[in-house]
């Protein structure tokens, strides 16, 4: 409890000094300090996630948050990050790709538990996916070392096509790293060497993207007003049908289940004990 209070006091001091959080993925991307209630909720979620992970015995988990309301697309969670128990910078830190607040670029960030929930999420809820020990062991050095950035393309699009390399979004980046790790398990001497090979690998193993419908009117508005939504990596057929393939949290979770790469999964919220996820 003392550490939690100290952390809260430190964060409050930073907020008093006007620190903002200029990066987001699948969230509101708000360039203003969170409110005291939002800070309290974020730390409560952090404590619940920490306690769950400590009890799990896992070295790594994939954690999804509901940063944005995607219900019109039939999706619950918008963004996924990797949570590492023994990160070089500290215990239980997130490694994830974040968009530079509405701009056309992104970067890889190492962040604490509370920060993951500090960008005004649509729901204070997180889905936890724990990979098999073998996959954890392969993912850890990739995520904790320089490869995490080597596999990153800073050209960002929120709706990046999962099997194209022109852009990259947060879930696609993590999906590609999962493919890297799986290929190392399957054939260490012939593991995937670039993004094109990673995409071919997960496609061959049964990955299915989600599709979202974007009307011509909304596409026109997004093209003008949002630098982080780009359509030119999608096919003419997608544009004609107004349905675009995306690497959603649900598609990544579905792929992990399809390849039997999970040993546990749960959902945590502010007010309920952990429970199995119903959907993603």
Q: What's the arrangement of secondary structure elements?
A:
Elements: H1 2-16, H2 36-56, E1 60-66, E2 79-87, E3 90-99, E4 106-111, E5 123-131, H3 133-144, H4 147-150, H5 170-186, H6 195-204, E6 210-213, H7 216-225, H8 236-241, E7 243-246, H9 249-258, E8 262-269
Antiparallel strand pairs: 1-2, 1-5, 2-3, 3-4, 5-8, 6-7
Number of domains in the coordinates? 1
Overall helicity: 25-40%
Strand content: 15-25%
Spatial order of the strands in the main sheet? Answer: 4-3-2-1-5-8
Give the biggest sheet: 6 strands, antiparallel
* Count of alpha/pi helices: 9
Low-confidence stretches: 1-22, 220-225
The chain-level structural class is: alpha+beta
Q: Outline, from the CA principal axes?
A: globular
Gyration radius over CA: 18 Å
Strand tally is 8
For the residues shown, what is the average pLDDT? 86
For the record, give the distance between the C-alpha atoms at the N and C termini, rounded to a whole number: 32 Å
The string of secondary-structure elements, in order, is HHEEEEEHHHHEHHEHE
């Amino acid at each position: 409890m003392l550490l939690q209070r100290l952390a809260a006091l430190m964060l409050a001091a930073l907020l008093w000094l006007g620190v903002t959080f200029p990066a987001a993925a699948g969230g509101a991307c708000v360039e203003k300090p969170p409110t005291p209630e939002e800070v309290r909720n974020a730390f409560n979620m952090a404590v619940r996630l920490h306690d769950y992970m400590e009890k799990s015995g896992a070295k790594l988990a994939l954690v999804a948050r509901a940063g944005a309301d995607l219900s019109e697309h039939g999706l619950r969670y918008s963004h996924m990050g990797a949570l590492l128990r023994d990160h070089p910078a500290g215990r239980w830190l997130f490694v994830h790709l974040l968009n530079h607040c509405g701009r056309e670029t992104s970067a890889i960030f190492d962040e604490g538990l509370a920060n993951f929930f500090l960008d005004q999420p649509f729901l204070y809820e997180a889905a936890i996916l724990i990979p098999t020990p073998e996959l954890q062991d392969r993912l850890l050095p990739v995520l904790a070392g320089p490869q995490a950035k080597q596999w990153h393309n800073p050209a960002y699009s929120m709706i990046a096509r999962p099997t194209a390399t022109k852009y990259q979004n947060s879930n696609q980046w993590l999906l590609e790293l999962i493919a890297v790790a799986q290929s190392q398990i399957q054939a260490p001497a012939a593991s995937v060497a670039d993004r094109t090979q990673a995409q071919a690998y997960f496609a061959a193993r049964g990955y299915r993207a989600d599709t979202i419908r974007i009307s011509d009117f909304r596409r026109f508005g997004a093209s003008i007003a949002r630098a982080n939504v780009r359509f030119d990596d999608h096919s003419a057929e997608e544009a004609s049908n107004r349905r675009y393939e995306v690497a959603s949290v649900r598609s990544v979770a579905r792929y992990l289940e399809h390849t039997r790469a999970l040993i546990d999964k749960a959902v945590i919220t502010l007010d309920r004990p952990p429970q199995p996820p119903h959907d993603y």
